[in-house]
Design a protein that fits this description.
- With 131 residues, this protein is mainly alpha-helical.
- 79% of the residues lie in helices and 0% in strands.
- The protein contains five helices and no strands.
- The protein has helices at residues 2-26, 32-59, 68-85, 93-97, 102-128.
- Helix 1 crosses helix 2 (32-59) and helix 2 packs across helix 3.
- The longest helix is centred in the middle third of the chain and has 28 residues, at 32-59.
- The model has no long low-confidence stretch (mean pLDDT 88).
Length: 131
Amino acid sequence: MLGIIKILRAYQYIFYRLYSWDLRIGGESWVPEWYALGQMSILISLNILTVLEVIGRCIGKSIVPPITFLVVSITVLPLGYFVFVYNSNYKKLPEEFGYETSSQRKKRTAAFVIYVILSLVVGIALLAVRR
């Protein structure tokens, strides 16, 4: 159970960073919570599809038909909505993560950047280089 809490906390931090970035770029009128939700949904969908693709390659059978990305994304989006956007839950995240020490910020930024890059590169590469 503790592992699930750590994973949820990590995803909250990732959402917080995406939201903060989108807020800085476009301001409140740009509805940054929705952009961050879309970005999170894409990352999580790529993670799920990467796992499914690896399993498929291990058993020697493709279990990820092309429409799967759309189905997974449509499933992940409402879940993210209720976790992050509903009742303005995203507004509570700066209270949790907004006061990082510089050491925490460096570690979390490195982990955030590595996660985003690996999710995109590995997910897209595995799905693009299909058998």
